[in-house]
Amino acid sequence: MDKILVGLKRAVDYNVRVQVKSDGSGVETDGVKMSINPFDEIALEEALRIKERGEANEVVVVSIGSSDAQQQLRTGLAMGADRAILVEADGVPDTLSVARVFKALVDREAAELVILGKQAIDDDNSQTGQMLAAIWERPQATFASEVMLDGDKARVTREVDSGLETLEIDLPAVVTVDLRLNEPRYVKLPDIMKAKKKPLESIALADLGIEPGPRLEEGAFEPPAGRQKGIMVDDVAGLVAALKDKGLV
Amino acid sequence: MAKILVIAEHDGAALNPSTAKCVACAARIDSADINIVVLGSGVGDVAAQAAELSSVSQVITVENERNAPAIAAILAPQIVALADGYSHVFGPSTAFGKDLMPRVAALMGVNQISDIMSVAGSHEFKRPIYAGNAIVTVKAPADHPVVATVRTASYQAVDGGNSAAVENASIEVELPSHTRFVELQTGSSDRPDLQTAAKVISGGRALASEENFEIIYKLADTLGAGVGSSRAAVDAGYVPPETQVGQTGQIIAPDLYIAVGISGAIQHVTGIKDAGTIVAINKDEEAPIFEIADIGLVGDLFTIVPELTDALGE
């Protein structure tokens, strides 16, 4: 195939313990480390491996949001993507609009495969790939743990609650990736230097002709109800007694 | 009045308990008229089980051999055709529902709400974000249907004993042929499913090998419990991925959860927040799991777990 599109979302780093602001207006993101959403890194790694096997010609990384996301796109280029597109918007639009952005880019680029993370670790929505596949009227293979291309088809193994499900899908298609698909490569310094010379194009959201649809409004943010620290027991006999006390054994 | 369509999850023979939990969520909306749709092939038995759920006024079956096994791209257009006239369409926040519902929402031209954990109004819901580190209230536009997944761990299944009417609907929409089911490999275990197990024993990286997980299995079998794991244990190859509990694995709410050799990273803890009683067994007394455990025991799991199995097996 010719092109693979990969989405890279700029998200709060995996290791950051996110705190709700005291006035409930959002979560604290000032001075917090931002990274590529970890699932998106896996998506990019898979695209790069497909290209390295000679099964695709070009890997294009896409991000949507403020110009800060250039940082994550540059990291994607350093990992090995050929080209980057930033769709500039005030913050990240609603998910359906994000899916429409991808659809517009798929049309523009004539991409045959879109690989996305199965969810972003900030909003934990797990929606974009499925929505893109819906409006594109193409197959979706979500939560992938194995992707095998075979001409104009792909065999994708998916992590489902009861085990592993395998689907055969016709290309073009959308694949969203799970944790076990691969281990993303580390970026080396010379790659970072090389990435500076790779093309990074900015497009305004409005220029894609996308009108945000009916949005979900976010109201108050609150910290989760905490669990109280319980009792400590000294030995197995104490544990069994405590469990019997609660009627659990 | 709210008219709510709940999408049944099933395997062709049995209704998945996630459906009864979606109904419980739907019933929290004022004066809700709740219908369940069962899409499949030969789903009479499943429909009968759905009809027993309290708060349900009607069960609709959509029979089509292409509906089994369930494929999101094939089910979604049928659900959209059926959703006409409904104010809400709910599915479970399981792998099945997470795959399907965004596709339904996008075809209907609306955004989707993921993981409803509490109902604040007919168009206002609370949901967890950032691995459960924050809860946000989201408001859906009042003039559009609400499409959502329900965080099943937040709800108790509704009771049975009902006998709702069952009606077959025939839906004439074009179904795509671009997606084909090949196979489903399930674990060969006879242990209870994580989502429905009353008791779950989970092992972490400290188990140190696939063989060592045998002590977890023995304890689980003594208690009739399901077996879960941390991401670290799955990544190390000790246990299959479907056992993973946490932000990116399964979110569960058993009556008893025993975490063995699991440090308690936030990504894991978010998957067990709604458990009844959490027991932690860990050799590191500083492990964060003890901050949320109801009962903690510091010590060597390789001594404690067999001892506990013996004590409970007596």
How would the blueprint of this fold be written?
The complex is a heterodimer of chains A (249) and B (314).
Chain A: E1 3-7, E2 10-12, E3 34-36, H1 38-52, E4 58-65, H2 70-79, E5 83-88, H3 95-109, E6 113-117, H4 128-136, E7 140-150, E8 153-160, E9 163-170, E10 173-177, H5 189-195, E11 200-204, E12 217-222, E13 231-233, H6 236-245
Parallel strand pairs in A: 1-4, 1-6, 4-5, 5-11, 6-10, 7-10
Antiparallel strand pairs in A: 2-3, 7-8, 8-9
Helix pairs in contact in A: 2-5, 3-4
Chain B: E1 2-7, H1 17-26, E2 32-40, H2 44-51, E3 56-63, H3 72-82, E4 88-92, H4 95-108, E5 112-116, E6 118-121, E7 124-129, E8 134-139, E9 146-150, E10 165-168, E11 179-186, E12 199-203, H5 214-223, E13 226-229, H6 231-235, E14 256-260, H7 266-269, E15 277-282, H8 289-292, E16 295-298, H9 301-313
Parallel strand pairs in B: 1-2, 1-4, 2-3, 3-10, 4-9, 5-9, 12-13, 12-14, 14-15, 15-16
Antiparallel strand pairs in B: 6-7, 7-8
Helix pairs in contact in B: 3-4, 5-9
Overview of the structural elements:
- The complex is a heterodimer of chains A (249) and B (314).
- Chain A is an alpha/beta fold and 249 residues long.
- Chain A has one domain (3-245): Rossmann fold.
- In chain A, 27% of the residues lie in helices and 31% in strands.
- Chain A is built from 6 helices and 13 strands.
- Chain A has helices spanning 38-52, 70-79, 95-109, 128-136, 189-195, 236-245; strands at 3-7, 10-12, 34-36, 58-65, 83-88, 113-117, 140-150, 153-160, 163-170, 173-177, 200-204, 217-222, 231-233.
- In chain A, the strands form 2 sheets. In chain A, strands 9-8-7-10-6-1-4-5-11 form a 9-stranded mixed beta sheet, with helices on both faces. Chain A has a two-stranded antiparallel sheet with strand order 2-3.
- In chain A, helix 2 crosses helix 5 and helix 3 crosses helix 4.
- The radius of gyration of chain A is 21 Å and the shape is globular.
- With 314 residues, chain B is of the alpha/beta class.
- Chain B folds into 2 domains: 2-168, Rossmann fold; 199-313, TPP-binding domain (Rossmann fold, 3-Layer(aba) Sandwich).
- Chain B contains 9 helices and 16 strands.
- Chain B has helices at 17-26, 44-51, 72-82, 95-108, 214-223, 231-235, 266-269, 289-292, 301-313, and strands at residues 2-7, 32-40, 56-63, 88-92, 112-116, 118-121, 124-129, 134-139, 146-150, 165-168, 179-186, 199-203, 226-229, 256-260, 277-282, 295-298.
- In chain B, the strands form 3 sheets. Chain B has a 7-stranded parallel beta sheet with strand order 5-9-4-1-2-3-10, with helices on both faces. Chain B has a 5-stranded parallel beta sheet with strand order 13-12-14-15-16. A 3-stranded antiparallel beta sheet of chain B has the order 6-7-8, with no helix packed on it.
- In chain B, helix 8 links the parallel strand 15 (277-282) and strand 16.
- In chain B, helix 3 packs across helix 4 (95-108) and helix 5 (214-223) packs parallel to helix 9 (301-313).
- Chain B is globular.
- The chains are: A alpha/beta (249), B alpha/beta (314).
- Strand 13 (231-233) of chain A pairs parallel with strand 16 of chain B.
